Amino acid sequence: MQPIQLFDLASRQAEWLTIRQQVVAGNIANANTPKFRAKDVTPFDAVLDKSDIAMARTNPAHFSGNDLSDSGDIDVKDAALDQEIGIQESGNTVGLAEELSKSGDIKRQYDLNTSLVSSFNRMMLMTVRK
């Protein structure tokens, strides 16, 4: 029997969402700090490409899974410059509206992640009971 990778994938995404929420919260906290540069994390797709969670192929015509075995480190980097905000007079690059939007997106992704894991867990429990 093959191991169930959905839980590994969901765990990895939850870890990524936690780090991203910390970075966004730090950006919001430093919205008025002179010369503070907004930060963001690498997209989850890039983290998934580095991880050892490979997608299964049931047919050679399907896309190939990744075969990298790195730990899939989540990198924190300077965020792209917001064209509306730009660099403020104080040298700060945090766009508060953009950061709040990111925070809402993180919550939606986390809710979806936990809902999928919960549904899959219920489905597995139903199959074990029979």
From TrEMBL:
UniProt entry tagged with the keyword Nucleotidyltransferase: no
Ranges of residues in domain Flagellar basal body rod protein N-terminal: 19-36
GO CC annotation, single: bacterial-type flagellum basal body
Main localization (coarse): other
UniProt subcellular location: Bacterial flagellum basal body
Family matches, as Pfam families: Flg_bb_rod
Keywords assigned: Cell projection, Cilium, Flagellum
Protein name according to UniProt: Flagellar basal-body rod protein FlgB
